[in-house]
Design brief:
CATH topology: hypothetical protein PF0899 fold
CATH architecture: 2-Layer Sandwich
Number of strands: 6
Distance between the termini: 53 Å
Helix content: 10-25%
Oligomer: single chain
Number of domains: 1
Order of helices and strands: HEHEEEEE
Length: about 130
């Protein structure tokens, strides 16, 4: 239920910044290293949003690929690139050693984030002067 916790966190941020107004759209960036299934996040978000300002809001997710950087030479690489379509490369093996120098010390450059980028809220109804 990792996605349930992520969905609750997304909801909390969106609700806190909505100013009490109904939320229409929530846009998030989810890193590949979060190992979260987008459909599962969406499913859980719909559940936790019930009865809140986010009920019925559309959740848009941008997947951020993983990127590591070598501590020795600075080379950046994706540790688990998407598989090719031939049978030889269907299951990628994650590479945590630098492809340039073989060093095992690396830092995460991208792919670990969970960021609520923006929310769209309904505007308050304008009351015309009487």
């Amino acid at each position: 239920m990792h996605e349930l916790a992520l969905s609750k966190a997304i909801l909390a941020v969106a609700a806190r910044h909505s100013g009490g107004r109904r939320v229409r759209d929530v846009r998030v960036r989810v890193g590949a290293l979060r190992q979260a299934i987008p459909e599962s996040i969406r499913f859980h978000f719909e559940i936790v949003a019930r009865g809140t300002v986010c009920e019925g809001a559309r959740l848009e997710q941008e997947r951020v690929p993983a990127a590591l950087a070598c501590a020795r030479c600075g080379t950046e690489w994706d540790p688990a690139p998407r598989p090719a379509f031939d049978a030889e490369h269907l299951i990628p093996v994650p590479r945590f050693r630098c492809p340039s120098c073989g060093n095992a010390e690396a830092r995460v450059v991208a792919g670990d984030e969970l960021v609520v980028e923006s929310i769209d809220v309904e505007e308050d109804a304008c009351i015309a002067p009487g």
